[in-house]
Write a structure and sequence with these properties.
Layout (H helix, E strand, L loop, with lengths): L2 E8 L7 H9 L6 E4 L8 E5 L2 E5 L11 E4 L4 E2 L1 H13 L8 E4 L3 E2 L2 H10 L10 H9 L16 E2 L1 H6 L5 E6 L23 H5 L8 E9 L1 E4 L10 H9 L12 E6 H11 L3 E5 L1 H7 L2 E5 L2 E5 L2 H13 L8 E3 L7
Parallel strand pairs: 1-10, 1-11, 2-5, 2-10, 5-7, 6-8, 7-9, 11-14, 13-15, 14-17
Antiparallel strand pairs: 3-4, 12-13, 15-16
Helix pairs in contact: 3-4, 7-9
The structure holds inosinic acid (IMP) and magnesium ion.
Length: 336
């Protein structure tokens, strides 16, 4: 039977608003599955649903629309956090039964992994959620898989059967975590996370390249980064952006550093991820701050107004094969 996938990938350093795009796309009732394809509970998904704010770390946006949601083999799972989120969402009236599953070959984050990360992760400023040590154990072949945890049994699926065992067509919305700038191979090593945040990372969950149709790249109209390296330039405007944009990590509460959007790193991310559609979030923040600038070819380029800047970006995207009709500038927490 046929298997197709649309991928949502963050083009910067995480926190660009993938959850909102997932929420928007899964609303269309087209997808049979939502797949989280990388990362652990280092991720923080902020979702506004029916006027209420939800923060999840493991559970993908699909559950809000009753779409079958799977934490894939490219992820690492903390069972304690997993059950905590299920309880939290159930209490808020979001039905979980029969909606959330875990691939049986997904690796597990152990309490030893978490303790180690809290102790040693400070150097690069990890979230302390055990992500790095869990992936190390996986690749060192000393890890524990979901299939080995009795409490997870009712939630397990075999991705092969899930994708290829169905009599009906399978349409997957593959939702990434973190972002291209944090990718283990293409991010600013060692200031990276330990998983594959790219479109390629989605394929690691049992999907062939030919299954991928649309790739939704998600960026912010300015950049943010949270971690140990120095990222934010001097200038009061960057603090103003952070305050206006409420740029505090949803996992650790740390203040995110900010900078203008960098066109060269964006282009690299667009090419390497095969982006077909792109959403720029938080236009409203720059509108409030009243400054329109980007970094292009190592120089800050200032624009006189919003229109001048969005036109410039749209023209540049055309040269990368993304037409204007597939570029979205979003100014709302709930809509794209
Ligand atoms: P780790 O993923 O916890 O190992 O942290 C590695 C780096 O990735 C640190 O700079 C974290 O702040 C950053 N990071 C991890 N997950 C996220 C995320 O979901 N959003 C933004 N930054 C993240
Ligand atoms: Mg986040």
């Amino acid at each position: 039977m046929s298997v197709t996938a649309d991928v949502i990938v963050d083009l910067q350093y995480g926190d660009c608003g993938k959850g909102k795009v997932a929420h928007y796309l899964s609303h269309k009732n087209f997808y049979t599955h939502v797949l989280r394809y990388n990362g652990g509970c280092n991720a923080g998904h902020t979702i506004f649903h029916k006027g209420k704010k939800f923060v999840t770390h493991h559970i993908p946006a699909g559950v809000f629309f009753g779409v079958k949601s799977i934490i894939g083999s490219g992820c690492v799972l903390d069972p304690v956090q997993f059950f905590r989120e299920i309880n939290m969402l159930e209490k808020s009236g979001v039905t979980m039964k029969g909606k959330i599953f875990v691939a049986e070959n997904t690796h597990v984050i152990t309490s030893a992994n978490k303790a180690e990360d809290r102790k040693k992760g400070g150097k690069i400023g990890t979230t302390g959620r055990g992500n790095g040590p869990a992936y190390r154990d996986k690749y060192g072949r000393t890890g524990t898989r979901a299939v080995d945890i009795p409490k997870l049994r009712p939630y397990l699926v075999d991705l092969y059967k899930e994708w290829y065992g169905s009599k009906k067509p399978v349409h997957i919305l593959a939702e990434g975590a973190q972002g291209f700038g944090l990718d283990i191979d293409w991010g600013d090593y060692p200031y990276v996370t330990s998983s594959h945040c790219t479109t390629a990372g989605a394929l690691l969950n049992g999907l062939p390249p030919s299954a991928v149709h649309n790739v939704w790249g998600v960026a912010k109209i300015y950049e943010t980064y949270v971690g140990s390296k120095k990222f934010q330039p001097t200038g009061a405007v960057f603090n103003a952006i952070a305050e206006t944009g409420e740029e505090y990590g949803s996992t650790t509460g740390r203040r995110r550093q900010t900078n203008w959007m960098n066109m060269q790193t964006l282009e690299r991310a667009i090419r390497m991820n095969g982006v077909t559609h792109i959403v720029f979030n938080k236009i409203d923040v720059l509108r409030t701050v009243g400054r329109w600038s980007i970094i292009d070819k190592d120089n800050v380029r200032n624009f006189k107004n919003e229109k001048a800047m969005t036109n410039f970006v749209t023209e540049r995207l055309k040269t990368l094969g993304i037409p204007k009709s597939r570029v979205f500038f979003s100014e709302s927490k709930e809509r794209i």
